[in-house]
């Protein structure tokens, strides 16, 4: 059964506000890989574990229709509320039972999500719904999994100190509250054998070169921390007051290292998200 950590309305709103969109270069690589051997109409793409829609809308220019799926009704509500694309829709669905006919989808993506899935069941479902090789298609559909590591706060000569504070929050302050799946993405970037796809190795590709930079306030960085599942687990066990104290302490440490005048809402820094991408093609 898939893990369910992002179902509260407040958490879904935080996720929508503070999580990044995937880099355009990453999406272009996915599309280039798909189109490189596929001649058929790009009719359907599915984004599994779509959260609040950041990883879904970026596919809209390339397909007749794109569907975002998430197990959380709160996330789907947030995504639907923000949707402005006529060819994009969202549905509540787990990753292990995809609501599509067999051999009907050209691309399946999962951005910062598949570490929550029952992977053998998800892979079987992806294989079922992806289009196969045919005379018309020339090559089969593509499964693309991607994620990003810890965001790297950058602010001149104190950048390394800021990174240490983020790492300390994850590895020490939230020790015991972080789910193993989260560590597999943030610390291991899907390197373990369980993430090997079901297709032949010659049909798979990996790329760790993509990144995206966001200019954010210190308050935004603190908000991003609040969207972590580990923080939400801490909050559920220890209560709102302890959770707010944890965030306030984090924010105070960041402001102390920056050593500048102003409020957390006004002080801006750069967050760099380094991405990794795994792709496989159905034979």
Name the descriptors.
283 residues; alpha/beta; nine-stranded mixed sheet; elongated
Brief summary of the model shown:
The protein has ten helices and nine strands.
Structure description:
There is one protein chain. The chain has 283 residues and is an alpha/beta fold. The protein is built from 10 helices and 9 strands. Strands 1, 2, 3, 4, 5, 6, 7, 8 and 9 form a 9-stranded mixed beta sheet that branches. The model is unreliable at 1-16 (pLDDT under 50).
Biggest pleated-sheet summary: 9 strands, mixed
**Number of strand segments:** 9
Rg measurement, Å = 19 Å
Classify the secondary structure makeup into a structural class.
alpha/beta
Helix count from the secondary structure assignment: 10
How far apart, in Å, are the first and last alpha carbons? 28 Å
**Overall geometry:** elongated
Helix percent reads 25-40%
Weakly predicted, low-confidence segments:
1-16
What is the H/E string?
A: HHEHEHEEHEEHHEEHHHE
Mean pLDDT: 88
Tell me the strand percentage band: 15-25%
Secondary structure blueprint with pairings:
Blueprint: H1 9-18, H2 24-35, E1 44-48, H3 54-57, E2 65-70, H4 73-82, E3 88-92, E4 107-111, H5 119-129, E5 142-148, E6 152-154, H6 159-173, H7 180-186, E7 204-207, E8 211-217, H8 218-226, H9 229-238, H10 240-258, E9 268-281
Parallel strand pairs: 1-2, 1-4, 2-3, 4-5
Antiparallel strand pairs: 5-9, 6-9, 7-9, 8-9
Helix pairs in contact: 1-4, 1-8, 6-10, 8-10, 9-10
């Amino acid at each position: 059964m898939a893990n369910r950590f992002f179902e509260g309305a407040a958490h879904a709103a935080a996720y929508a506000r503070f999580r990044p969109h995937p880099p355009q270069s990453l999406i272009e690589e996915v599309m280039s890989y798909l189109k490189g051997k596929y001649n058929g109409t790009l009719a359907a793409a599915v984004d599994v574990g779509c959260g609040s829609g950041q990883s879904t809308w970026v596919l809209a220019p390339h397909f007749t229709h794109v569907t975002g799926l998430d197990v959380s009704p709160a996330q789907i509500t947030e995504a639907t509320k923000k949707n402005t694309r006529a060819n994009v829709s969202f549905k509540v669905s787990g990753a292990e039972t995809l609501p599509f006919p067999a051999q009907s989808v050209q691309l399946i993506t999962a951005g910062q999500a598949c570490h929550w899935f029952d992977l053998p069941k998800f892979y079987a479902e992806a294989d079922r719904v992806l289009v196969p090789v045919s005379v018309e298609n020339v090559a089969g559909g593509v499964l693309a999994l991607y994620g990003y590591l810890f965001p790297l706060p950058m602010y001149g000569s104190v950048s390394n100190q800021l990174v240490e504070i983020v790492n300390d929050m994850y590895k020490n302050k939230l020790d015991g509250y972080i789910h193993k799946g989260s560590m597999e993405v943030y610390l291991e970037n899907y390197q373990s054998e369980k993430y090997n796809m079901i297709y032949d190795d010659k049909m798979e590709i990996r790329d760790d070169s993509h990144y995206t930079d966001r200019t954010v306030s210190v308050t935004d960085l603190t908000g991003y921390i609040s969207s972590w599942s580990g923080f939400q687990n801490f909050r559920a066990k220890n209560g709102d007051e302890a959770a707010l104290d944890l965030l306030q302490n984090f924010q105070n440490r960041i402001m102390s290292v920056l050593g500048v005048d102003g409020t957390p809402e006004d002080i801006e820094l750069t967050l760099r998200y380094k991405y990794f991408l795994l792709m496989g093609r159905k034979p």
